[in-house]
Design brief:
The structure is a single chain. This protein is of the alpha+beta class. The protein folds into 2 domains: 57 residues, no CATH class; 77 residues, 2-Layer Sandwich (GCC-box Binding Domain). The chain has 4 helices and 9 strands. The strands form 3 sheets. It has a 4-stranded antiparallel beta sheet with strand order 1-2-3-4. The chain is elongated.
């Protein structure tokens, strides 16, 4: 690209000027103004191949729309700020070392810990020498905290 492109628009970005700054591969950076009013610096290659379309505002808008669609789709499962279907979900995450959701090894204290989260609040259920004790504490916590919410919205 050269100086003839000053004023040209790529998606939401209007090129204002070429700068002395350099980006990846030592390419010149162009100062652009986004339709939302923010400024953004990018390379000609990123403008040409549509890798950059805005200052970042487009990604935020798209994410919000996607999140709203997902929430509306699952609205009947969101109650009191909680995704009810997830309360009974037992499959642990892939990085879980204990094999049980909400039970983890605390390397510093060299003990097993049990925790759970409900309505955005984390409940610490204790530390235990044996993994089985932590699993039992987690099960008791699920019974105490999750069960009433699950029963309420059955």
């Amino acid at each position: 690209m050269n100086k003839n492109i000053i004023g040209k628009k790529y998606n939401r970005l209007t090129i204002l000027e070429v700068t002395d700054k350099r980006g990846g591969n030592q390419e010149k950076l162009y100062k652009c103004r986004c339709d939302c009013g923010n400024y953004h610096y990018t390379t000609s290659a990123r403008l040409k191949n549509n890798t950059v379309k805005s200052c970042g505002c487009l990604n935020i808008e798209t994410s919000k729309r996607s999140g709203i669609r997902a929430r509306k789709k699952n609205e009947k499962y969101y109650k009191e700020g909680t995704f009810i279907k997830a309360l009974g979900f037992k499959k642990p995450k892939s990085n879980n070392k204990s094999g049980y959701t909400g039970v983890s090894w605390n390397a510093k204290d060299r003990k097993w810990e049990a925790n759970l989260t409900l309505k955005g609040k984390r409940y610490y259920l204790g530390q235990f020498a044996e993994k089985e004790e932590a699993i039992e504490a987690r099960k008791a916590g699920e019974e105490k905290y999750f069960k009433p919410v699950i029963e309420k919205y059955k």
